[in-house]
Structures are given as C-alpha cells and as structure tokens.
Amino acid sequence: MNKKLINAIGAVMIAGFAGAASAAQYSWSFTSTATSHVGASGFGSNVTEYSSMNYTNGAGQSVNIQGFANTASGSTIERAYLTYQGSSGLGMTSRDSSWNNEVDNYGYATYPDHAMDNEGAMEGMLFSFGSEMNLNLVDIGWFSGDSDITVYAYTGASVADINSTVMGKTYSTLSGWTKIGDFTGNSDPRSTTNGTYSRYWLVTPGSSSDYKDYIKLAGVTATTKPTTPPPAVPEPASLALIGTALAGMIAVRRRKAA
Q1: Domain-wise residue ranges, the chain
Q2: Are 218 and 30 in contact (CB under 8 A)?
Q3: Where are the beta strands (DSSP E) in the chain?
Q4: Is the pTM of this model over 0.85?
Q5: For residue range 77-112, what is the model confidence (pLDDT) as tens digits?
C-alpha cells in the first residue's frame, strides 16, 4: 500500500481520537465572611472564633479551612481557632503555652497575636479542597515583622479524617505530609507553585529561628490536576476519509490477489 496513504490514515485517526490534557486554576478570597462556618467557644468571649470555615468561589469550587498549633503538652499539635479579620483575611488564636491563650484579660485577642504567627507556638492553617490541587499562590493580606511561610502537602495514604494526621503530632514528625518548601520575603501574593497535587495543604509561618512572622491570609490560588479526557468521537468528515482510505487498502489487496 502507498506509504502516503498509510500516513494519511494515521494522521486522521490521531486527529479524531486524541485528547489533550486540561487543568483549571481557581482562586478563593478570604476578605469577606465565609460561605459557611462552624463556630467555637475558643479562648475568649469577645473574640469570634471558628473551628472551621468554608469558602466557595464564583466557579462553585469550595475549600475548607481549619486552624492548628503545637500548643499542647510536649509541643504536640492541637486545635487552634480561625478569626475573620476583614479586608486583611483570616487570622488565628491559639494557646502560646498551657496557661496563655493569646487573649487578654478583657477577652480580646492581643496585637499582633490575632494573626497566624510563630511566636511561642507554631500556628498553621489546613486547607482541604474538593479534589487534588497544586497550591500556586498564597495571598498575604497583612503581616508584621516578616511574612515567611512554610508549605506542606499531604502525600500519604488515603485517610477517613485528615485531622488524624495532624492532631497529637509534632511538625517534625508529621506522617504522610511532605514539606514543599520555605517561601521567604514579603512579596504579595507569594508564589508557591510546585509539582505536587494533593487535596490537603498545610500553611504555617516560617521558621521561628529566622524572624517572628505574623500573617493574615487574604486568599489562595490553586490549579486542578491535569486530566486526559476520553477519546473524542471522530467528526463525520474524518470518518469519511478513514472509510475512503480503508476502501483503497482493500482494493489494493484485491489487485495483488488477482
């Protein structure tokens, strides 16, 4: 059979059946009240605190946020509480130690401890997405001193409750979590683009040995994991060309047989 005809058949079949990988990027803003939340009594009667907050963007994609800090006995991680800080985004309250809870005697969060910080305790926000995402950007709405961050992604085996991989652990012994990197400086938003995809991401201030970081998060941006769609049904014109080519192959075989 003519090699040109074979090449033409191959090109038509590739065009008709091949699919391209696709991914989508989404952003969430935390500078407005949450779509939904779970309230908490927290650490102070005059501080509105939440054990979790849910934000849904215009595309209908949701992210759940929870707060944690290594404030329990032995510096193990326990629950901390999120606070809404208006145009600055989300802050946090936790116990700096077993006796101090970052709230003054009047029940108000002290400055700048109403931010997510690494003074005393290492606080962190856990982001749970509806599907595997690559965390691209962290938008820092406010900072004091410095705004270094550290980013972790959960890459371990599937678990029924992601909290079980954090609660009661230490940051140095987290199981199933991969440290993506330390992102330093005061750029805004902070680029954290990397090659990892996960449903769960943990963002903390940078190392306390560097400088005291006090941060409020105004939003995040993440990209869905690329997927290859199923083969598309060839267009009628492509089918016709394939049929013509096959008919030519049959005709050539018959001539040779004769």
Answers
A1: 3-18+234-257, 25-224
A2: yes
A3: 25-29, 36-40, 49-56, 62-69, 78-84, 90-93, 116-117, 123-145, 149-154, 177-183, 190-191, 198-205, 213-224
A4: no
A5: 999 999 999 999 999 999 887 777 788 888 888 888
